[in-house]
Amino acid sequence: MSTDQQDEQGEDDTLVNVADGVDHQVAMVMDLNKCIGCQTCTIACKNLWTEDGGSEYMYWNNVETKPGEGYPRGWEDSGGGWESSEHSDRSPGEIPDEEDYGRAWEFNHEEIMYEGSDEPLRPRDGAEWGPNWDEDQGAGEYPNSYYFYLPRICNHCTHPSCVEACPRSALYKRQEDGIVLVDQDRCRGYRYCVEGCPYKKVYYNTVSKKSEKCIFCYPRIEGEGPEGETFAPACAEECPPQLRLVGFLDDEEGPIHKLVNEYEVALPLHPEFRTQPNVYYIPPFAPGQHTEGGETVDIDRIPRQYLRELFGDGVDEALDTIDAHRQRVRQGGDSELMELLQDKNPAKQYRLEVFDDE
Amino acid sequence: MPASGPSWPRRSVLRGWSTMPDHRRTITLTAVLAGLIVVSTVAAPMVSARPAHEIPVSEVSTADLAEPDADGWAEVPASDVPLSSAPSSVPNADDTSIETVDVQAARTDQRLYVRLEWQDATRDTNASTPRQFADAVAVQFPVNTSSRPPIAMGGPDNRVNVWYWSGSTGTQELLAGGAGSTTPFQNPTVQANASHSGTGGNATWTVVYSRQLDAPSENRTDLRTDGDLDVAFAVWNGSNGERSGQKAVSEWHYYPFSGGPQGPPYETLLWTLAGIAIVAVVGVTSFGIYRTRGAE
Ligand code: SF4
Ligand code: SF4
């Protein structure tokens, strides 16, 4: 599928590995050290894309507490992805159960507001699970308990197993920017994509009977907004601490390329699924452990092994690199990396127009 | 196929053998054998059950056939069509649960009616949670009735029409030119009525499809064809997660629209040729024996 032009680019202009037949690859970096778990991103996304019938239970963007079951419950053990880095054999996956996503509960508003009931406000029927049911629970024992928030969207993977899973080629990776979409005209609701995505980021619309997923807000990045302006995805723009960088992985002047490929401090989630995600995370730091007496000691609060399970073995070096640059700045030195991780200049944070002239 | 010719008249032949002079005996034997062979070759296709892949179509003048339990179906013969898992690359493709479907067909001068009945203990008509799949059934015809398309959803140059009914989405009329290319027609011209009856292991689905004989548009099968009409069937059991290529399918069968009940022309032709060949061989052999003996 690749054209001559892309082949030339692949060889001459860039070392960045984008998928075959894709000109450029959108990407996002999220700094987990800044997430306050406010769910503004989740709601921004929901208001825009998943308010209609059949999509109530979907959160294309969700923020879950780690360690924790996540959304849908147990997604990390639900299969999907590739057997090897050859990307020839997919591993089978499972469709999550309705209860694992969590149903929309009904509350006793009626009784309390209009019928004078003294009951506390609560869900009507047995509410036993839902997104963020285990919010802030985390792991570890006082005084060394720990948790952090993990915002998740579709990773618009370079080797999307959701695309490969569809027998009708209803899912595809857009040539211009690598965004993975579901063609609603081709989809017949078979849900092989739902089970085939190891991140469980394709959802089945129970009314339209077709699959849906994060579209990386492509109408916004295409400038389809009211003023014809380009906007980053809503989850990024609405985030109070502005922890998301949005741009192209193969934009070598941009911060994403530097963080991912030069400094190697932004890492994909669960690289062992081998779909090669294009959403990257700056791994979380936490204060050292405390003794019973309240003294800080030099022992990782978040077990390093747990972070390796999430972000792969690259996490050790990523944390060391960030640490070294921090020390440098503390001692009065300069660090481009520290500036990138703190930069509030929106022109740099969202670089979506760099390839517009092509 | 069951043995079908008259039983072997062993005794009379033996008696003839013992009482006649040699050359007369040989001639008589030859004549009897030849006669038997001719009788059996001609009789076989006429007396036997119809050819294995033929599904009879009753010609009826008026139709009370649209509903699964319509009285008219009592008069229409049924064929047991065996099903097996379709070859497919989707996960669990070989895990299908429906092994046979009963097929009836009837034709008025306006419409073709096809009634399908199969056992399925669970009535799965809901696909409104992520894990639910609906029961479904499909009938497949070639768009161009003069040649037989690849059985798996046809091919790019040899497309198929599919009449599809599912418990959750109702009836669809589809066009396909190979696996994964299925496209629904905008305005379906196929009607389907379905019912699930009985309980437990004996519960069955019955679905009746009907469509006018004339092709309603391009890319739709002309059912007024004079030739035999190829037809194939597929069934999905929703509660077993069956959908897409995970389905129980039949081989190609045919409706014998080309004429009488004796099967398609090529089969009769083959039988006739085989009969003539056998008679000729026996004749030549007997003549040889006769000559040899005469020379003694
Ligand atoms: S995260 Fe899942 S849905 Fe998104 S591109 Fe990757 S495999 Fe497909
Ligand atoms: S809006 Fe930002 S800070 Fe709030 S939960 Fe989402 S990513 Fe975290």
From TrEMBL, chain A:
CDD domains: EBDH_beta (cd10555)
Record keywords: 4Fe-4S, Electron transport, Iron, Iron-sulfur, Metal-binding, Repeat, Transport
Species in which this protein is naturally found: Haloarcula sebkhae
An example Gene Ontology biological process: anaerobic respiration
InterPro entries: 4Fe4S_Fe-S-bd (IPR017896), DMSO_Rdtase_II_Fe-S_su (IPR017839)
Residue ranges annotated for the 4Fe-4S ferredoxin-type domain, each copy included: 26-54, 145-176, 178-207
Pfam families: Fer4_11
Gene3D superfamilies to which the protein is assigned, alphabetical: 3.30.70.20
GO CC list: membrane; periplasmic space
Residue segments, region Disordered: 68-99
Name of protein: Nitrate reductase subunit beta
Cofactor(s) demanded: [4Fe-4S] cluster; [3Fe-4S] cluster
Top-level taxon of the source organism: Archaea
Repressor listed as a keyword: no
GO molecular function terms attached to this record: 4 iron, 4 sulfur cluster binding; electron transfer activity; metal ion binding
Lineage summary: Archaea, Methanobacteriati, Methanobacteriota, Stenosarchaea group, Halobacteria
Location of the protein in the cell: Cell envelope
